[in-house]
Amino acid sequence: MSRRIELLAPAGSFEKLEIAIHYGADAVYLAGKDFSLRNFSGNFSAIDMTRAIQLAHANGVRVYVACNIYPRNSEIPAIADFLAGLKDIQPDAVIIADAGIFMQAREIIPNIPVHISTQANTTSFQSALFWKSLGAGRIISARELSLEEIREMSRQTGMEIEAFVHGAMCISYSGRCLLSSFMAKRDANRGMCTHPCRWNYAVVEETRPGQYMPIVEDERGTYLFNSRDLCMIDHLPAMIDAGITSLKIEGRMKGINYLASVVKVYREALDACLSDIKAYQVRDDWRYELDSISHRPYGTGFYLNDPDAVVPAYDDPQPSAGAVFLGKILESDASGMARVDVRNKFSQGEVIEIVRQKGPSVRDVVQRIWDETGVQTDTAQTGRQVRIELNHAVQAFDLIRRP
User: Fold this and answer.
1) H/E segment holding residue 7
2) Does 319 fall in a domain?
3) Cα separation of 318 and 308, whole Å?
4) What is the rounded distance in angstroms from the CA atom of residue 189 to the CA atom of residue 122?
5) Is residue 321 over pLDDT 80?
């Protein structure tokens, strides 16, 4: 296939950026400390963003910077300063939803491409053509669109189309939600969402306080707004055929365990699809990997016009626990020794899984452990760095977990 298809991964911190690069992302999206919709993901200071772009570019990975809030009057000067700061560090694009910020960007950083955020609710090719006429280079499609609608948008506009391929779905229209603002005084459209759509709700009649009326309920309560997680691993050929040029993974606030597994699986799946799209089949180890991370029941969202795919997940509202993330490999040598940053306690003799850069995860046994002083120990404690001996070779940024 001659058309370039991009795998786009979230990078909510420098560590997540390193993991996304290690496991094969073509591009990452990240943000500064302000003006994006994930203010609690860590994000990047100006100095860190410079380092991030340098590291990504050194590895052939593109960087898109999110500036996709809807600003207030008082923020306009600060946003202008933020955009001006991007001029020197040269990200590959800036992600914008607001027309005013778009106008500022065209004036301040005219040489940096603009991608129109999903928050802009672009649901028709006519809207896409509007943004194209102003100089936008890419549309991040509204999540409510079917693949057929995206196909028409691509055909009518000739623009790059970015669409989500995996991750959490917002219960509200293209993420434009007010629940968090009303219930927790934290504005979802300004990066501070508390995700009240995941909370337990019941109906109470005014004259019967304390009497909770069942709607669709189990012993844990009623989860009116609990959306399924998107998983399009079975439908990559259809997404590509619809004209989508960038497959976007959701999750700037997710941990590196989630990020590693999802990026790795979709990297391998996309490569297989592009190699022979007609012969594409989902491997069992890909499904195993996606089931090994914490997730809600998977679905296909609005893409296939399947009404069951967008019904709230009443049956299993809580995310599955997934495998336990144990640590990140910091360095290794040919003798099977590795230094590990320990995130959860593990012991000598324990069976673990190694999430390798390529190929299925591999089971191994922790043969021996040495603490930071070089003393052999039975247990690797959370928050420490230890050396371990394994049977299989590992490399820096590989992750280990308890299956």
Assistant:
1) strand 6-10
2) no
3) 18
4) 16
5) no
| Of residues 17, 18, 24, the one with CA closest to residue 270 | 24
- Residues 135 and 247 grouped into a single domain: yes
What string of H, E and C letters represents the secondary structure of 95-110? EECCHHHHHHHHHHCC
Asked if residue 180 and residue 169 are part of one domain, the reply reads: no
* Per-residue model confidence as pLDDT tens digits over 348-370: 999 999 999 999 999 999 999 99
Last-in-domain residue among 215, 242, 266: 215
Please state the φ and ψ torsions of residue 163, each to the nearest 5 degrees: -145, 150
- How remote is the C-alpha of 268 from its chain's centroid? 17
- pTM equals 0.88
* Domain assignment of residue 372, yes or no: yes
Do 6 and 247 meet the contact criterion of CB atoms below 8 Å apart?
yes
Q: Is residue 111 domain-resident? A: yes
Domain count within the chain: 3
What burial class does residue 376 get, using C-beta atoms within 10 Å of its C-beta: 0-12 exposed, 13-18 middle, 19+ buried? exposed
For tokens 């999750």, name the residue.
Answer: 251
Residue 176 in tokens: 């434009």
Per-residue pLDDT of 23-80, as tens digits, reads 999 999 999 887 765 555 567 888 999 999 999 999 999 999 999 988 999 999 999 9
* pLDDT band, residue 220 (cuts 50/70/90): very low
Name the residue range of residue 207's domain: 176-215
